[in-house]
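task queued by scheduler; priority normal; single chain, no ligands, no partner chains; default sampling; output format set to structure tokens
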Amino acid sequence: MAVETSPLAPLREPVFRTLWIANLSSSFGGLIQGVGAAWLMTSIADSVDLVALVQASTSLPIMMFSLFGGAIADSFNRRRVLIGAQVFMLVVSALLVLATYSGMITPWLLLGFTFFIGCGLAINNPSWQASVGDIVPRPLLPSAVALNSIGFNLSRSFGPAVGGAIVAAAGAGMAFAINAVSYIALLVALFLWKPAPKAESPLPREAIGPALLSGVRYVAMSPNIIRVMLRCFMFTVAAISVLALLPVVAARIPGGGPLTYGILLGAYGAGAVGGALLSARLQQTLQTETIVRMAFAGFAVCALTLAFSPWPVLTGLGLAIGGGCWVLALSLFNVSVQLASPRWVVGRALSIYQTAAFGGMALGAWLWGMLAEGVSLQASFLVAAALLLAGVVVGLKLPLPPRSALDLDPLNRWKMPQVEFDVEPRSGPVMIEITYRIRPNNVPAFMRVMTERQRIRRRDGARRWRLMRDLGNASQWIETYEAPTWTEYVRHNMRLTKADANISEQLRALHDSEDPPAVRRLIERPPSWLSAIRSRPHTADLGPH
């Protein structure tokens, strides 16, 4: 349907449209700041690897702190998180302006400021990306992600060229000042945004530490997401060679300067806009894996062009191809992660995806800078192109999952069980036994379904999952698992999605009885429990009845 494929369709949503325009302004300022930082480093440092580290200093904190940002996005009000991150980056940018105009700036101080701006992005990005799924209907999510790419790359098309002109005319300090001002529009839009109130959860907010672990566990137990992460890391570690070394390419062009660098980045951004606009049509006719392989191969062409091209026009054409391939690959990686993640964990899943993406960028920027410094600029691009072509071959063994319409809304079938004595939220551990009756000829099918059942249980927080067969009754099978507390047991069951219901239905079909599988819930009570309870102050009963 057109509403699902047009990259412009989400702009019909007023809230998304306002925030998108404000993000466009902020991205424009960020690209101007990036040109100023990269070119200032070429002026105050005499090492190629320090120039490459400007890119790494922004990517590294996103790799380091993105998961923390994802846990915050899933646990706190996302609008408030976004406002806090924007205010932090505004303050850091203002300090960078002061340090530059006062003459105090040094290579390592410049890297420090860009590192802190990257820290702000690490907190901001998971909340913003997770919020997109709250603002637009789920069928519009791929288009909204593509539209975000269009917005950023519209900034990249014009921001670097404008930034180069600003640096050439007024210096890097003016570029930093414009970036600081650009945060204001987004802050105003965020203050005006009034998201619909969410239904209050019956459970307490998950603490940051356990939230981090549950996010990592969910991703680790989701093979499709892991596959996306691996392919994304391989792509970014090779593709970042172009952006990391582009200031050096521009400086070595006869007559090259900051304006040349900005124009080359503009060509890259223009190609990215074209790739985003083509994305919807390509997804109508081609599988996700096919498009991603094309992106790997196309970016290899970009790297080879920069390795051998003696002409600025040809270099710009190669960069346009690379920009289109960049946005095609990363937007598909992003959408694949979002469509594979339920809302309760989407911020953390996206943050781990960001960790893979920006970790690849940080590692790649350092590697290609070292290789260019130690061998040659051309060698860096040749090795990067070879790695990208290898990524095409890897796709034969680790293809991305096909686009699907999994319904990851909460299943909401589980009801609080009745218990015969008071159970406090922190009481535990809780052990669950589920008894099935399986005919001998259905055992192979049962084992296949239980393999998936085990993955889902562990993914959603179950511990010590086991499957046992009764020695005195060969048709009786018992599934057991544990939750550390009653609260975590309830949380585990509330995480089941409508897509998971298929496994329960298959098990019910294999169960050889008119009654459903018998469920027993047991709570550990060591012999010393009663005396410990008597010695504790009385607490209000918060358990189920």
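post-processing summary
- The longest helix spans residues 14-44.
- Residues 537-545 have pLDDT under 50 and may be disordered.
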